[in-house]
Amino acid sequence: MAAVAEELTAMAAADHRATHRANSDDPAEQLAWRRLTARHADRLGEIMDAHGWPTADRFGADAARAAWLIAQHADRQLDVQRRALRLMEQAVSTGAADPRDLAFLRDRTLVNEGREQIHGTQIAGVRDGAPVPWPCEDPEHLDERRAEVGIPPFAEYVARFAPA
Fold this sequence. Notes:
Layout: H1 2-18, H2 27-51, H3 56-59, H4 61-72, H5 78-93, H6 99-112, E1 123-127, E2 130-133, H7 142-148, H8 154-159
Antiparallel strand pairs: 1-2
Helix pairs in contact: 1-2, 1-4, 2-5, 4-6, 5-6
């Protein structure tokens, strides 16, 4: 378990170092990002095959968070993302994973499926200096749903994305 935990945290560190490539103007940088996240998603799939969802109680908090980040960025491997979502839902139901992280992964997966997100965690872009979320279901009750899983109100969340 320790070797897997170390591997997951190393993959998350590599992800953080390369995140700037995701939206680069340079196609080669974008391709490098896609290749990295695909490699990581493939490996997460293997880890899930062998161990199920990597929970903090079994792998440590850093490795559990790393697994979530890898799943979150598995946008081009929806099968891995969906599987991670199912396993994480089970882990949350037993108290072994964070409902907040699950909300982010659920929204990301829904957006990748072309469906409305639930918690408004995924931003589509910026228009007139203001962050614009991907479409959300029942937007009138968005902040209530966010509060249920420990996510700040939407206005507070998007303020982080506004230009300084």
